[in-house]
Amino acid sequence: MADWMIAVRISTFPDGAVLAPAEGLPPRPGPFLVAVTLEDKVISIVPRDILEPLAATPPSDLLTRLPPLVTVELDDDRIEEAVLLELADLFGLLPEVPGALVERDGAPGGVLTRADTAAALPLELLDESATRLGNAPNVQSRRYICRRCAPPSRRLPRSTTAGPPVCGLVWSHGPMELEGG
After folding, report:
1. pLDDT computed for residue 105 by the predictor
2. What is the distance between the alpha carbons of residues 18 and 147, in angstroms, rounded to a whole number?
3. Are strands 78-80 and 41-47 parallel, antiparallel or unpaired?
4. Is there a cis peptide before residue 14, judged by omega within 30 degrees of 0?
5. How far is CA 72 from CA 15, 58, 62, 99, 173, in A?
6. From CA 155, how far away is CA 143, in angstroms rounded?
7. Are 97 and 127 contacting, i.e. CB atoms less than 8 angstroms apart?
């Protein structure tokens, strides 16, 4: 499989935005997504319409009621084919996750939605004989998981040469595990 870059459409956070508990993203087709934060860290990406029922939830219970956080690290608006396939596979396994948090240089930069991920997938990769990347025996996963988070958080790092990434939600959880590896 070639390791080439694919352009993706990312909903970026507004310039100068301070991520508050429900900082919104610019309007786009589909559900309006917001970044839910706790102690200045993004803990989940959710559709805006589920925020009101969660307003009375104590912070200690909030993580268990939100979809798990999926994070992908990008330099710009292009993503490696293998990472895009991993992300699409992960969205298939986690139907409650509406999009992935995009980090640039360790800071939240925006959201890559399910729809924009699907739109970026080249059709030749979606043939009938294709197998899910996570099940391919000769392809090492680039997906990391923190099982100490509830629900578990996941990260697709830009590079794995520096070792596994540290949990982005709770730094004391330490290094994340390679999922399926």
Report:
1. 82
2. 29
3. unpaired
4. no
5. 20, 28, 22, 10, 19
6. 6
7. no
pLDDT of residue 2: 41
Residues recorded for the chain: 181
Pairing of strands 177-178, 153-156: unpaired
User: What residues have CB less than 8 Å from 10, skipping those under 6 apart?
Assistant: 74, 77, 102, 109, 110, 111, 112, 116
Q: 153: which 2 tokens?
A: 């958080």
CA dihedral in degrees (167, 170, 173, 178; nearest 10)?
-20
> Is residue 26 within 8 Å of residue 111, measured between CB atoms?
no
pLDDT beneath 50, residues of the chain: 1-2, 15-27, 128, 130-139
Report residue 98 as tokens: 């509406």
Question: Would you say the pTM of this structure is higher than 0.85?
Answer: no
